[in-house]
TrEMBL record:
<feature type="compositionally biased region" description="Basic and acidic residues">
    <location>
        <begin position="162"/>
        <end position="172"/>
    </location>
</feature>
<dbReference type="Pfam" id="PF04607">
    <property type="entry name" value="RelA_SpoT"/>
</dbReference>
<feature type="compositionally biased region" description="Polar residues">
    <location>
        <begin position="204"/>
        <end position="215"/>
    </location>
</feature>
<feature type="region of interest" description="Disordered">
    <location>
        <begin position="196"/>
        <end position="215"/>
    </location>
</feature>
<dbReference type="InterPro" id="IPR043519">
    <property type="entry name" value="NT_sf"/>
</dbReference>
<dbReference type="InterPro" id="IPR052366">
    <property type="entry name" value="GTP_Pyrophosphokinase"/>
</dbReference>
<feature type="domain" description="RelA/SpoT">
    <location>
        <begin position="3"/>
        <end position="115"/>
    </location>
</feature>
<dbReference type="InterPro" id="IPR007685">
    <property type="entry name" value="RelA_SpoT"/>
</dbReference>
<feature type="coiled-coil region">
    <location>
        <begin position="123"/>
        <end position="150"/>
    </location>
</feature>
<feature type="region of interest" description="Disordered">
    <location>
        <begin position="156"/>
        <end position="189"/>
    </location>
</feature>
<protein>
    <submittedName>
        <fullName>PpGpp synthetase</fullName>
    </submittedName>
</protein>
<keyword id="KW-0175">Coiled coil</keyword>
<dbReference type="GO" id="GO:0015969">
    <property type="term" value="P:guanosine tetraphosphate metabolic process"/>
</dbReference>
Length: 215
């Protein structure tokens, strides 16, 4: 009711339903800035979800430093006799943004919205620090992802080509014939992966396989 009065909205159910889009609210915290937009796209792409409005306070922060992605949606609520479309506001932001917003809310609540100028200045500075942290973590994440992609390219993450080459000189049997055999234990220095497999079967002098299961 307080919000309806602040917005000068008539206090009828129909008017409130039409003008107030955050009757219900959901807060989603993500690790990275890019994740916030990815989550918003995933939710908005659901067939039973209708996106009403998007307010991007990450790209355009509020004057006090507040950052978050607000998405107003309608979702179906199934009653016993009908389906009702209910407006829900999604607040999607990073962990750093959420920490800042929670502290800012506590300060405003304590001072009843009359926050000393010094605290307002420190809050703004803290918002800048949180933003730089988010940007740095995004950059580190992309760097690690790029490194992993480079390691996984060409032969794939579990390539045995180098190992087969390293163990090629061990694949001779007693008769001097080359046989294909998996390595027992080896170390791929390119990817720092320890490879393990069962011991290869023994071969007789004539090249025939011997039964290793019986002593």
């Amino acid at each position: 009711m307080a919000k309806a009065q602040r917005l000068r909205c008539p206090l009828t159910a129909a008017d409130i339903r039409q003008n107030i889009r955050d009757i219900a609210g959901v807060r989603i915290t993500c690790g990275l800035i890019s994740d916030t937009y990815r989550v918003a796209d995933l939710i908005g792409g659901q067939p039973d979800v209708t996106v009403l409005e998007v307010e991007d306070y990450i790209a355009k922060p509020k004057s006090n430093g507040y950052k978050s992605l607000h998405v107003a949606v309608e979702i179906p609520v199934f009653l016993s006799d009908r389906v009702v479309q209910v407006p829900v506001e999604l607040q999607i932001r990073t962990i750093a943004m959420d920490f800042w917003a929670s502290l800012e809310h506590k300060i405003y609540y304590k001072y009843q919205r009359s926050v000393p100028r010094r605290l307002l200045q420190e809050l703004t500075e803290a918002a800048d620090v949180a933003h730089r942290l988010d940007r740095k973590m995004e950059r580190l994440h992309n760097e690690v992802a790029g490194l992993k992609s480079a390691l996984d390219s060409d032969d794939g993450p579990l390539s045995l080509k180098a190992i087969d080459h390293d163990h090629g000189d061990r694949s001779q049997n007693r008769a001097g014939n080359h046989t294909t055999r998996p390595p027992g234990l080896s170390f791929d220095t390119r990817r720092q992966v320890v490879w393990m497999s069962a011991e290869p079967p023994h071969t007789s002098p004539n090249g025939a396989l011997q039964d290793n299961t019986r002593e």
